[in-house]
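Illustration 12: Succinylornithine transaminase.
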Amino acid sequence: MFSEVRGLGLLIGCVLNADYAGQAKQISQEAVKAGVMVLIAGGNVVRFAPALNVSEEEVTTGLDRFAAACEHFVSRGSS
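Figure caption equivalent — predicted structure in token form:
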């Protein structure tokens, strides 16, 4: 699903691979349904920008929820 991760520390962007190009908005909508707020940059990058005082537990929970949202997106045919 992703071809590259850019950035440092907590401020990162995940670049969608060719199969999912242009679908960052739809993926971000799935993430919101899973309880994770992400940003988009163009149609091909999903960005994370958590509060700088976020705990490790909150990061883990957020990434688990984002992974579930991505799995749901892929399983329903990414339409």
